[in-house]
Amino acid sequence: MRDFDYIAPKSVEETIKILSEYKDDAKIIAGGQSLLNILKQDLMAPEILVDIKNLSELDYITYDEKKGMKIGATTTHHAVETSPLILDHYPLLAEMEHTLAFPQTRNWGTIGGNLCIQDPTGDVAPILIALKATVKIAGPNGERTLPMEDFSVDYYETVLEEDEILTEIQIPPMAPRTGIAYSKFRIVEGDAPIVGAAVAFTLNEDGTCADARVATNGTAPIPLRIPDAEAVFKGKKITDELIAEAVEIAGEAMECIPDIVASDEYKMRVAKVYVKRMAKKALSQIQ
Amino acid sequence: MITKVVGKRVERVGILDKVTGKAKYGADLEIPNALILKVYRSPVPHGIVRKIDTSEAAGVDGVVRIFTAKDIPGENLYGIINKDQPVLTGEKVRFEGDPIVLVAAEDEESADRALAALRVEIDELPAVFDPNEALKPEAPSIHEKGNLLFERKIVKGDVEKGFTASDIVIEETYETNMLEHAYIEPEVGVAYRDEDGCVVVLVTTQNPHSDHAQLVSILGVEPEKVRVIQTETGGGFGGKLDISVQPFLALAAYHLDRPVRMVYSREESFQATAKRHPLKIRMKTGATRDGKLTAMKAEIIADTGAYGSYGIAVATRAAVHATGPYEVPNVYVESKAVYTNNNWSGAMRGFGVPQIAVAHESQMDKLAESLGFDPITFRMMNAFTTGSVTPTGQTLNASVGIRETLKKIRPYYEQLLREADATQLSGLTGMKYGVGVASMWYGIGNTGHPNPSSAQIEVDHEGNVTLFTGAADIGQGSDTVLVQIAAETLGLPFDKIHLVRADTTLTTDAGATSASRQTYISGRAVYEAALEVRKQLVERAAKVFKVPANLMVCEGGFFFPQYREFQKLSLTDIIRRSLVPGEVIRGEGYFNPETTSLDPETGQGVPYTTYAFASQVSLVEVDLVTGQVGVVKTISAHDVGKAVNPANVEGQIFSGVAMGIGMGLFEQFYPRKTKSLDTYLIPTAMDVPEITPVIVEVPEPTGPFGAKGVGEPALIPTAPAILNAIHHATGWWVNRIPADLETIRGLTSADEMEKSKS
Questions:
Q1: ipTM score here?
Q2: Residues of B whose CB is below 8 A from A3
Q3: Which chain B residues touch A270 with a CB distance below 8 Å?
Q4: Residue range B505-518, pLDDT digits in tens
Q5: What is the pTM for the complete model shown?
Q6: Ordered structural domains, chain B, with CATH
């Protein structure tokens, strides 16, 4: 690990000022659970680390029946995992957090940091995509908001400009008759997923599909939302045949990368099975 | 025999310091003014070092000294069995990671800058990574004497006649994985020269006296000019038997007037230290229709990588144990250790026996199934018993507990079969459940070589009792076991004994903490020392009481003449009345179990005095969709002779099963590719199934209180039991470990995938 300077700004405003000044030389650190490993391996060598871990203005979870959930970017995984509001309104999110890495990681790691590091196997993004979440970004020219699925660009790369910071995750209230499921596959407990899938369905009163979301992790350089697979279900009654069709389309959208643990073909096969299983599980919650 | 300390679950020596963080591991030692050492390693797997230009690196701020092969005052070659490994190579590199230059700097960053400023020119040579390829005449020669390091043959009876007389013969090829030990504490140590000019090395190690001998040779100094002190050690599993940071520390401390410190990162620990030998095994086994084994033939090739390390021991052990714990009248084994340009393989928990057990236990299940016997019955029909003759012609005279262990697991086996059936009926589609059995035997101590241990006990004039042992406790618990044996023999409470351990100036050689030998061999040495001290104490007490020594009783730390307990005097009372200040009572203990060297042509001989035995049964689940195998339950019965500390024995069994799950299911070190724990996955507490340890005690007459060993046996049956359970679950024989995702997934036919509509 190279030496670096360290600064701990007191506000988002000050953080943006520092980022504007140091640009590329600065790197934000929150919980550091991914970044520290990257620094230790010299894969990144910032001149200055901007520590936002103690920015209390970004550490919150609120819920409004109309606007939905707002989660500050420096909220820890542990806080999300144990929040009564989240357990009430999006229990799947808490359930996912409970299996994310280890308790030590969850105590330090933040939900915003997880998204910003943009590890394509990350657990958080596919669920947020399925929940139709948006992310709020602050920069010198004010704030902007965009859908979760538009946040990631490539391996370890997001849309964030060098002077921008992710401040908030917004999740709309769940529509009635919505089912959502997420699961992941890994070899040992606590390790990163090899692949995972999240599926959400919202049904019309007549039982046909009003809306569907299909998202996967570990299947491309970024968390993948697969609109073509979603389109299969829209306006139709969801059947095993329809699910099988969507699974095949989902498979075509994947660009799995082989690694030391598994081949690309293996990852795609397993990811497809997970899409199928999650589709059935999501459906079973509303039928 | 009624014992008061031995056989009890006493609190581990030093455990409070460990759990409260007071214990000092190598990285915790604060040595003021210490320089940091770092090594430049070869970026290529095979080549000739043409030029080493250190001029730029020497000019880097904070760099104090740069060492190359030229700076080694003694012999620049080491190796625990055969010497073939340079401390710093000046001529040839044989694997990606061979050390070439050592840098001493004021801090880590300066050392890193110096490494980056080194200019090392290497002419790359063609490399060979497959041991079969390495044996071909046209293969690049890695060492001058050729690529065959060693070959061991075992010949008993007439194997071909044995096959002719068989009703069934099964022949199969097995492959096992290269593994990283992944102990929690990477290699670390500090060194300095003391006021007498002695180079003192404090280091994490399993082998302080061997470290000492090797450092003496490398530095070319008198033995008293080197002192090795073992720090608290966070695991070893064989990986800390070879020297690692020791020669670098000693070399720098020898040349410099500054203390030095060296810590391997996890990545360096992965790259620079020994791995488990991967084995390719061709095994042919015959049996008669009525279930008697007739013949076994095996060809074994072990990839020892760039250096010998323990390759000879691994090839030998795999050969000696190749039948498993069964009587086979006709045996022929050829076992080779072969050099390649892979990471060097060395000792790892079991020395080739965990690998060969995969083969012989798979063969046993294949034969049992073909002949229509259940796996336990078939094993029982062939298992060793008292009087059995091993493949090396040794008659087993005592402590042959294999049948006991099979008997103990029988009810669990039947219960798990019912559970597997029930789960299969109620469980998820796409999941299969199966039960597998495996047994093992393991010779305690070095193979066909003398492996003595020694110990001393002193009682000073104030009644302080001190046990001196060279045995390194690396977390396995020898400190506790040895103190228990001393306390029991002396008739003293456990906490009365002070321990001095693993310091080459203060203690004598106890041999390596390896081969599951410390309880048996060092335990017996401690027992002998304690007997001697006890005798002297009783004589002193007899004088105090003015009675003949044979009428004295020594019990619970008190001495009294027979039938006169009311007059009892404590050890301290006796000492005060009979020793003058400065006088000590001292007992010496020594034990070297009887072995003979194996005949070079036939392998006949007595490789070990005694063997441990075990049988294990596991319930596994196989996910046909992902190929993932999970171990649900394991019951493991071990004949340890006598459990000196049952909690310790159970701890070994738990850890052996945990390690075996990684070995059997997903651990795989890819030379030049595997860099860290990021991709080398090991099981954590969360992946360990329900484990039921069963302790079987068939006493070994030469062992202290009947004890043998359990450290390595605990691991050995795990992987083969998993493979056999996978077969029971799915009908597939998996002839390799790890039985990883794509191996299992690859066996699932499209048809089955369709059926497993999940």
A1: 0.91
A2: 109
A3: 625-626
A4: 999 999 999 999 99
A5: 0.95
A6: 15-22+452-591 (3.30.365.10), 31-125+187-263 (3.90.1170.50), 275-446+598-757 (3.30.365.10)
